[in-house]
Specification:
Elements (H helix, E strand, L loop, with lengths): L1 H15 L13 H18 L1
Helix pairs in contact: 1-2
Length: 48
């Protein structure tokens, strides 16, 4: 149940949220850093 929820969140993230993989991490704003952290957290739970 929990893993399927995170899979759904990952699909929503991929379709709605912007990609930040090509940006310089040192120049990201705080909001962009939060976005990266959230995507990382969801990805970890999908792969768990």
């Amino acid at each position: 149940m929990k893993k399927s929820l995170f899979k759904i969140l990952a699909k929503i993230n991929k379709s709605i949220l912007p990609s930040v993989s090509k940006l310089n991490v040192n120049k990201l704003s705080k909001a962009d850093k939060v976005l990266v952290a959230y995507k990382y957290w969801v990805t970890l739970h999908v792969l768990d």
